[in-house]
TrEMBL record:
Name of the molecule in the record: Amino acid transporter
Positions of the UniProt region annotated as Disordered: 1-22
GO terms, molecular function: transmembrane transporter activity
Lipid bilayer topology: Multi-pass membrane protein
């Protein structure tokens, strides 16, 4: 652990201050908001996640989104404080490693990377599915004699992979271009969401009930735990803005951007959750799953207006693919800079100063995983399996980062009570809440069956995905510690 004085005064590491080995500081507050908001992908979460959550918590979508927001916001305070003290491309990997333990720090960076790659793999399928649905609305139902199917994992994955590669190439070109593209996509998405959801509040024929906002009306503890993990997953991604902390002109703008993005997400989720329940009966909401937003739009408007939510979903998926590549490549760049990964991850584009090699490599890994995921036959099953596993992983590394913030800034409890609440108490409470629901959900997966089966609804399969994500990092960490002899593991990093 480093002293508070050294950590607070530290900026990016040696190399980050060297113009020949650093990335451009080209981003402002709005750019950061665009990156964070694109990573959380509200439109995709609404279009896909609300249907999944409705199948778990029933007609309590608004309250489960509010309950999940509170610990995530508390943890965001810890992220913001850590970033202000030490903006770093490695973000949580760096902060947990310096403050708590390098092994925990490495595993934090590892599971974050693995979880994001899994997310990218299934989001390619979501992207392809939305494109196929849009083609169907345009009466293009076959290509070269092959009938298009929006629920075919094979077709949707192959189409989505083309989009993923394109998004990666734009990310290599530079964050300024990527941020401009994401801002344009976000404006369209939010206009469509606000228009349709706002109209749905008044046009829906399902009776409004205050029980939708009553946490005690959620059917069971199992439903609460799984609903919370799914909802936390919907907020996941706000921290991506901290991975570009070395490319933001003012570190405080990254902290503000993360908070602004979270608040915007909450308002959108509350609006959409209420509107969906006003328009769709529970069985229709739960049954439509990956096509929830499309079905919602079709209930409110006829073509061509009904196609707008689908186009917004497609834009959201494209933006989230790109905004997933960006922080992941930078996290691996930081790990390479510390010597825990090979030097290939530190290679910057000679002109654009982006981690180009890492961006293309991690895209290649996501492509390979997406092709492997074809073994799960339908889009709905693939999404369900991935979201539950990633939700538990996200709860774990959010909690570790929150604990790191509390330990690092514990002196604020004596010098500034308000800052102490924001950087110590709040993150600790948020970490406790996420660990509780994540642990409980993991137990329910274990207790739900007595055999293993490669199926999205098999608890042992879902739990094994989580365990594999974590355990796979141990050999990599051991290799970095004893084979590469990385200074990161002995505390000899600036």
């Amino acid at each position: 652990m480093v002293s508070t004085e050294k950590a607070t005064g530290s900026g990016p590491r040696t190399g980050a201050n060297d113009p020949q080995h650093s990335m451009h500081r080209s981003l402002g507050l709005l750019d950061g908001v665009a990156i964070a908001a694109s990573s959380t992908a509200a439109t995709s979460s609404i279009g896909i996640g609300l249907g999944l959550m409705a199948g778990v918590v029933g007609l309590h979508l608004p309250v489960i989104m509010l309950l999940a927001f509170l610990p995530v916001l508390a943890i965001a305070g810890g992220y913001g404080r850590l970033n202000t003290a030490e903006p770093d491309a490695g973000s949580s990997y760096r902060w947990v490693g310096r403050t708590l333990n390098p092994w925990l720090g490495f595993l934090t960076g590892w599971v974050n990377t693995v979880g994001t790659v899994v997310f990218m793999a299934y989001t390619t399928t979501v992207t392809g599915s939305s494109i196929v649905q849009l083609l169907d609305l345009m009466h293009v139902r076959s290509v070269a004699g092959l009938r298009l199917d929006a629920d075919s994992t094979v077709q949707c994955t192959l189409i989505g992979l083309v989009v993923l590669v394109g998004a990666a190439l734009v990310a290599v070109r530079g964050l300024d271009l990527a941020a401009r593209l994401q801002k344009a996509l976000l404006v369209f998405e939010y206009v469509v969401l606000l228009g349709f959801c706002g109209y749905g509040l008044f046009a829906g024929d399902q009776p409004f009930s205050l029980q939708w906002f009553n946490p005690f009306a959620i059917p069971s503890m199992d439903a609460l735990a799984q609903g919370m993990v799914l909802a936390v997953f919907c907020y996941w991604g706000f921290e991506s803005v901290f991975s570009v902390g070395e490319e933001v002109r003012d570190p405080r703008d990254a902290s503000r951007a993360g908070t602004v993005a979270l608040v915007v997400m909450l308002l959108l989720f509350l609006l959409a959750g209420t509107a969906f329940q006003r328009v769709l009966p529970l069985d229709e909401l739960a049954d439509n799953g990956a096509h929830g937003l499309t079905y919602f739009g079709a209930m409110l408007a006829s073509q061509p207006l009904a196609a707008l939510p689908l186009i917004a979903l497609m834009f959201s998926a494209v933006a989230s693919l790109q905004s997933s590549v960006i922080p992941t490549a930078r996290g691996l760049y930081a790990m390479g800079r510390d010597g825990v990964l090979g030097p290939v991850w530190t290679r910057l584009h000679p002109r654009h100063r982006t981690p180009a090699a890492g961006t293309l490599l991690i895209t290649g890994v996501a492509v390979a995983l997406a092709l492997c995921a074809i073994a799960i036959p339908t889009v709905n099953d693939l999404i369900s399996a991935a979201v539950n596993a990633i939700g538990i992983i996200v709860a774990l590394y959010y909690a570790l980062t929150a604990v790191a913030a509390a330990v690092r800034f514990r002196h604020l409890l004596r010098s500034s009570l308000l800052e102490g609440l924001r950087a110590v108490v709040g993150p600790l409470l948020g970490a406790a809440a996420l660990l509780a629901v994540g642990g409980y959900l993991a137990w329910t997966f274990y207790d739900s069956t007595d055999h293993f089966e490669l199926a999205a609804d098999n608890g042992w399969f879902e739990l094994s995905v989580v365990i594999l994500m974590i355990v796979s990092g141990l050999p990599a960490a051991a290799w970095a510690r004893w084979r590469r002899r990385s200074a990161y593991f002995v505390g000899d990093i600036g």
